[in-house]
Design a protein that fits this description.
This protein is α/β, with parallel strands linked by helices. The protein has a single domain, classed as P-loop containing nucleotide triphosphate hydrolases (Rossmann fold), CATH 3.40.50.300. Helices cover 51% and strands 14% of the residues. The longest helix has 25 residues. The protein binds adenosine monophosphate. Adenosine monophosphate binds next to helix 2 and helix 3.
């Protein structure tokens, strides 16, 4: 199964992707995570992406497309779930072309829907561990000791692009890009609209219900 997961920042894409990947044996490929690893490793790619990411802008298509098609090439035959990519129609078109060369296609697009106020509240309260990547929230998902990672005792940080000033820009960018992208997929694939303004377990159950039906079809 080859799946694209779309959703506003903090719609719960990462959490749902992990569950989906485990449930169906898929490779989870998050463009944001790959970029953050590249930055942490100090690679050329990471350096090129840095200023775009810190201001909440999109990294140029040619950089992202090359990075993600290489990652997809390494996916197992059972398939993958894409998280954060594609973000533009151009990226989606290039992804489809690259898959078509292997006689593959995107089987389903999951569109996690959430309103901007909820998204902004979720994002600005988010804290993460710079060592293990665990994600917390100052209200909804507190660590045992305030500001400290439960897994390894590292001090939690706010991602630079999760600050309130950058979040407004990320949400604006998201809306500008996402609507044409969803339209593209409505014409070229099967799109499932999922209300993500619910408990994480309810969202997961809804996602699995749709994907189970797809697998059986
Ligand atoms: P995310 O963790 O998915 O919110 O991504 C963090 C940042 O990485 C974004 O704000 C962009 O600067 C960059 N990024 C991630 N995925 C993409 C993509 N598909 N196209 C362009 N930029 C991206």
């Amino acid at each position: 199964m080859r799946i694209v997961l779309l959703g506003a920042p903090a719609a719960g894409k990462g959490t749902q992707c992990k569950s989906i990947a485990t449930q169906y044996g898929l490779l989870h490929l998050s463009s944001g995570d790959i970029l953050r690893h590249q930055r942490a490793a100090g690679t050329e790619l990471g350096k090129k992406a840095q200023s775009y990411m810190d201001s909440g802008a999109l990294v140029p298509d040619e950089i992202i497309i090359e990075m993600m098609t290489k990652a997809i090439d390494k996916a197992p035959a059972v398939g993958f779930i894409l998280d954060g990519f594609p973000r533009t129609v151009n990226q989606a078109v290039e992804l489809d072309k690259s898959l078509a060369c292997r006689r593959h296609e995107i089987d389903a697009v999951l569109n996690l829907k959430i309103d901007d106020r909820t998204a902004a509240k979720r994002i600005t309260g988010r804290r993460s561990c710079p060592r293990c990547g665990a994600v917390y929230h100052i209200e909804n998902l507190k660590p045992k000791v305030e500001g400290i990672c439960d897994n390894d005792g590292t001090e939690l940080v706010q991602r630079p692009d999760d600050s309130p000033e950058v979040v407004a820009n990320r949400l604006r960018t998201y809306h500008e890009q996402i609507e044409p992208l969803v339209d593209y997929y409505r014409n070229n694939s099967t799109v499932y609209d999922i209300d993500a303004d619910r408990d994480v377990d309810e969202v997961r159950a809804c996602v699995f219900e749709n994907l189970d039906a797809l697998v059986k079809a």
